[in-house]
Amino acid sequence: MDIITWLVIGWLVGWVASIVMRSNAQQGMFLNVVVGTVGAAVGGWLSSPLLGVSAINQSNLSFPGVLVSLLGAVILLSVVNVLRRGATR
Question: Domain of 25?
Fold first, then answer.
């Protein structure tokens, strides 16, 4: 059941992050799921030691966990955007 939660919440988090970063038109549903779940891992890795909040990948579904996942997804999209811009120059 955890994997279904990761996919659904990861899709929602990835979708919101792509709207925040204005890259929603460039990516589909699959990429939203990937960005959301990888972003949750990045967010959990960065903020768990600092804030004591676990991400959705750590079997703890909570509002602060979703926010941490969203922050991680936004950070991931920011890094991808920077790398993409550098590759086109």
Answer: 2-88
Backbone angle region of 30, left / alpha / beta, with phi > 0 → left and psi within -120 to 50 → alpha: alpha
Residue of 59, 20, 24, 22 whose CA lies nearest to 40: 59
Number of domains in the chain: 1
**Residue 57 identity (one-letter amino acid):** N
pLDDT tens over the chain, length 89 residues: 567 777 788 788 888 888 888 877 677 777 777 887 787 777 777 776 777 776 666 666 778 778 888 888 888 888 887 887 765 44
